[in-house]
Amino acid sequence: MISGKFAITIHILTLLTKFPNDFLSSEFIAGSINLNPVLVRKEIANLKAHHIVESKEGKNGGTKLAVNASNLTLKEIFEMTFETIGLGYAKNQPNPECPVGKKINQNLEALYDEMNKKVSAQLENISLEDFSNQF
């Protein structure tokens, strides 16, 4: 299902791109997003697992970008956040005797697959640096 995780992750990475030499605290980042620092730390942990950011503990600790923003595409960030876009399916199984019900989920699956291809194609051509230069 679509969530705000991609927007949160892009916000974090854009901030880190704007302050390349600084370790930003999760509180500072959370203040920019207007979000609980715990949720920010959760997304930072995912970025850290993908070796996109590095963190330092302590009084002057925080997080900073560990990669070149010009080499990281929004497609790669999207794929770190979700595997695919999914709008979901009905909770109950459709009636297999119905002409619509028997094929609705496979048709939705094909639609979602096409959506993912289009989103990936668009995001593939935008680097984090390109996106960050808009601010």
UniProtKB/TrEMBL annotation:
Signal peptide as annotated in the record = none
So which domain of life are we looking at? Bacteria
Protein name as annotated: Rrf2 family transcriptional regulator
- InterPro entries reported for this sequence: Tscrpt_reg_Rrf2, WH-like_DNA-bd_sf, WH_DNA-bd_sf
Q: Which SUPFAM superfamilies match?
A: Winged helix' DNA-binding domain
